[in-house]
Amino acid sequence: MREMIIGELTQALHELARGFAHYLPRLIVMLILAFVGWVIAYVVKVVLRSILGLIKFDKLSENAGASQLLNKAALPPATEMASRFVFWVTWLGFVLLGVSVLGILGLQEQIARFFLFLPRLFVAMFIMFFGLLAASFFSRAALLAAVNASVPSPRVLSMAVRSIIIVFVLSIVFEELGLAEETMLVAFGIAFGALMLGLAIAFGIGGRDLARRFLERKFVREKKEENEDELSPL
Amino acid sequence: MDDGTFLTDDFLRQLINVGEVDILVGLPTHNNAKTIGSIVHAIQSGILHAFPRERAVIINADGGSRDGTPELVTGISIDDARPASNLNALRTLHSISTKYASSPEGGVALRTILAAAELLRAKACVVMSPDSTGIDSERLSTLLRPIYRDGFDLVTPIYRRHKFEGLLMTNLLYPMIRALYGVRIRESYTPEFAFSGRLGSQFLGQNGWSDGTGGTGVELRFTLAAITGGYRICQSFVGEKEHVERRAADLVPTLRQTVGVLFSALEADFPVWSSITGSQPVPTSGSDQEVLLEPMRVNRKRLREMFSTGVAELESVFQSILSPSTLAELQRIARLGEEDFQYSAELWVRTVYEFAASYQKSVINRDHIVQALAPLFRGRVCTFLNENRNASAHDVENNIEALCLEFERLKPDLLRMWKSRE
Amino acid sequence: MPLNRDALWYKDAIIYQVHVRTFHDSNGDGIGDFQGLEQKLDYLQELGITALWLMPFFPSPLRDDGYDIADYYSVHPSYGSLEDFRKLLDSSHERGIRVIIEMVSNHTSDQHPWFQEARSSPDNPRRDWYVWSDTDSKYKGTRIIFLDTETSNWAWDPTSKAYYWHRFFSHQPDLNYDNPAVRDEMWNVMKFWLEMGVDAFRLDAVPYLVEREGTNCENLPETHQVLKELRRKLDEQFPGRMLLAEANQWPADLRPYFGDGDEFHMAFHFPLMPRMFMGLKLEDRKPITEILQQTPEIPASCQWSLFLRNHDELTLEMVTDMERDYMYDMYAESKKMRLNLGIRRRLAPLLSNDRRRIELMNGMLMSLPGTPIIYYGDEIGMGDNISLGDRNGVRTPMQWTGGWNSGFSAADPERLYAPLIQSPVYGYPAVNVFSQRESEHSLLHWMQRIIAVRRSTGVFGSGSIEFLYPANHRILAYLRRLGKETALVVNNLSSTAQAVELDLRRYKGNILIEMFGNNIFPRVGDLPYLLTMGPYQFYWFRLRRV
Question: Tens digits of per-residue pLDDT, B64-83?
Fold first, then answer.
């Protein structure tokens, strides 16, 4: 009986060792890949940081309003965030590549899906970023125009513009990521439609006079107020 | 010279027929049939009266008029093919027209006129405005004589205005250009000005015709080019400025064409203005005319409200542009009542300089920076109106002079801001 | 070469104006004479002229260069005898050259026996031959012509204690044409010369013949009556002879002098001449075309007479004040050059001796509608001497050679009637007929050439004129048409090269033949005809449809 146990143990050990010896090269390869991946990721991070520094990415993200968001979340500045993110993604990619070398079934499929997902992730982030930028730009433009045209509640208008654009951008991002696409589209549609309807009602009823004045100014030469002289700036 | 390619063949042919000239009158137009008749007659009699022996031409750069404006301009040419019995003219006077675009663009019109002036080797040129409803034949010779006879390169007009007209000029452009560029040119952005062929050629050859600002505010860039190029500049009193009204609602486009252009020029001209201190007067000809003083009813309350609203609503924008102390000060005066409201000269100068520095750094979109200045300008206008409500012409002039000195005094601050964020 | 018997000979004539005194001296007394002139007829024939206009050669105290006549039936002894003149006439006719003489009909010299008689007493039969008055206030407002010397049109005669009327110098009393005796006698005078063989008269100062109170005493209907009467008699008794009017008036005012073809045959186109000079300086054809646009149509048998310069000052009477100031500033910077509202300079000095400009002006002279008159010496580019008084600066001796007295006279130089031009540029050693004959490209040869081309066609003398108005105002272009013949003349008035496009669509299909070289130029098509021209260049083209 003792010999059987020892024999089984020995066999098990042998199998383990065999298995180990079978997998060891792959493990080593995986470790090597991980290490190389770390190096490459680090290099990419440094390069990316320099590039982003050159194009003043921090400034852009500040314009986009992303910096403010990061600040509030006590996160590091945008360039740093972007570089680190790219670092992690790159390294993760190499690690996963190494894991796939191990040949564990099922996992490979998931890994492949991950790599397929990556481009869409980048596109979505890209859209998000520039969407935020556009939202910031247009909302500010609306704010300035409203202030200079003496439109009441200019900040409300500016926020409305920003919201609309952000909602729109988010819906595209979700669609790109493939997350609850249809739901998002419908939700966006409803929100947008409601917003527009609300604005129309408000504009039409509440802003009747304003609308009229606005249109008059656009299409008809404005008559001077009876008691006022017009000053020309030049 | 590559600007020959944007002149049409037909126009080039007309230029060949005109040949070399001594005097060139440029007239940009767009649907000005109502006013152009008297203007071209005034130009014609101005030439016949003051320059009867000189070879002259009128170049009409038209931006796609549909009301027959070009025909009205070319109709006053004096030539033997159409004998006009009442004219006592020694020479042929060509009046030719070209359509430079189907919609008006100020920069392209001027470029066309400059190109024609260069091809015709004109010695003295003048650009007239099709909106000048009160022009007389004297105005032409007042502007041209210093160029043609006295060797100046640029003549800007000084209009006889009401003390409350042209406040953008008196409260910003004039003092700022004076402080930075060291030249006291009263009106640097005018629809009418005269220049020498030399200056015109140099300006034509400069880049920047196809940059972002395109042709907007090109008149101001012209003046600045004359200053930085060391050209001889003088001013002439020309009488009242009777122009088709520019509505106060056009403030933002006006700011773009003037302040926006000035701010963007500061960058390129930095080597020039950074080393200048003080300012020099510019020779002035013609008889000095006092400002008009008749009472004007202006809605100062509205101006102040627009200022206050602007300060409040644009806080997030101003935070990117202004220093915290300046913004705080603006917010303080925005809360003041009508009697106490005062946008002091010093605060205004600080405001303008911080805007200029922010523009240079592009802290936010540059056009937004210019737009953001509008409500603040209105506040300044309100203060100016208050301060000069009962002022005599002399007092108004003194107040403007004080503002200019303030601009000059605070110039080192601008330089500091300019260099610091680099 | 016999005389061309055509009744309208004057329309194709080339007239040469000369003063007998200035041309050639045959007897060594320092003054040119008829025989001397006769000796030079070959030169004139070679030049190509077809008519000789002689300035007054009548007996005269010479206080107005012969325009103050003391005897209408004789010749001044300095120039020879009546017989000499006859021989000159015949010799000219043999060479096909007609002779035009002066008839100073408005006034005589105060030395004339008629005036001597008239002034002697108020009852003298000749008293009424002149215009007398007890006061000098009649005919007020009449302009004074010789502004530099006269202050009034009336002169006081101490002998007869009365005022007499004179539109010119005070020593030239006006004849009274209200007196039929005067009119008859003037016809007799003319008849005398016509019978001798003279072909034409230049009637001097015709606008002023008759005076009437309340008028400006110029161009009056009564004057025209007198002239028509003269013409009628001329046509009756001497067909084929010609009357040329000297009337310094606006074209519209000149028109009546042609009548309906029953008054003068020819008249000088005075207003055109200063405008040619003006157009050249301005480099703008406007002054030239405008005056010709204002020139009225004249009867088919009549003709304008064109000239660049003559014995008088370049008159600026018929221009505006602005134009006169311009002409003074451009052509007569020195005040010495100015006289009587005009400029007393010759053609070459006026054009700064610029050969191209001289050619261009002569080209216009020969191609504009009218009969051209060449002032003696201008065919070789003679200069002037402004230090000689009055208008004598342009009446110096003809320069024949570079030798003794320039071949003008064998006399001592001090005896010459006027000094020769001595300047290094215009002096006779530099400018003379002999050396220009030797030089192939001299102005003289060029003048011969252009006269020959002009004479080769009748289109310039008798043809109509139509201006083209190319957009380039420096180019003066016109079409001359006579019957089927069409000539195109293009002149560049500018000192710089020019390009011009001419609208010749009506002549599509015509080939242009340049008339001096007879070379063919491109055919006229649908597009504007492009010509490029050098400074002051001109073209004469014949349009030919093959």
Answer: 899 999 999 999 889 888 87
